Amino acid sequence: MARRSRRTPGWTDIVEALYEGSWNAGLHRFRSPYAFRGLPRADFPLTSSLVRLAGGAQVGRVELALLRNFRKYAHVEGERGQSVWDWLALGQHRGLPTRLLDWTYSPLVALHFATEAPDDMDRDGVVWCVNFVEANRRLPARLKRILQHEGSETLTTDMLAPFPTLRAFDALARTPFLVFLEPPAMDRRIVNQHALFSLMSSARAGMDEWLRGHADLARRVVVPAALKWEIRDKLDQANVNERILFPDLDGLSRWLARYYLPAERPAEAPMDDPYATPSALNARDRNRRTRWSRRAAPRRASSTRSSRR
To answer: For 119-141, how does the pLDDT look when each residue is reduced to its tens digit (9 = 90+)?
Structure first.
């Protein structure tokens, strides 16, 4: 019995997989309970920049030192924060290594980050999808009461104000828990990216490990390398790109540099249009055969000319 070959997923398959589970029967609307994070390589872990920086050092002490010095020197630059949560969000936004990870409510924005790096176009990417609504059911009782009182499905920096320090927050439970946190709208980048952060209740805790223990809350949508350029081009046409997500001159320059990057395809093997109709493809092939048939037969060299070589 012939073995059935597995079909390579296409653009619509990826989009449908990202929007899976978005129907809310209670609201009779499509309101996805998932947060999304796109990575250009499928083997990249969900590790915070703080853990990567600290390595084998005492992560908690490194975290406190980073925040303390960031607050001290940020005042010189005119940056302001109020609570430790505002400073943590500001630091993450400005590139400070923190325990936070960047996520988005938008599956297409996540798909952008999975396909933005030209150097990784030959590798499979991935979009992580985590059900933050169900994750909230695993929160400590005090945090659940805050969400219920506010009628919200995600926490904000203001809602975490009752916990003035990271230590007070971490002490809410003996085992690590996961929180999704909406950052304050510091600039258009946060707004345009429809951004939110994930926050573990320990500087050392890894989100990968937590998700392995709560596998029912997450799924991975792999973005095949063979599909990346198609997805990239369609996202650009849909106006999901660096120019919009990073609305400054740096973002504009990044978009232009990538958009006009020459495609690395051999001239003698052009790609077929996947959206061409079968009749159009057949007509093209018939025209190609006709052109070949009308060519004159190659002239055979005479024996005299051959003998002179």
So the answer is: 999 999 999 999 999 999 999 99
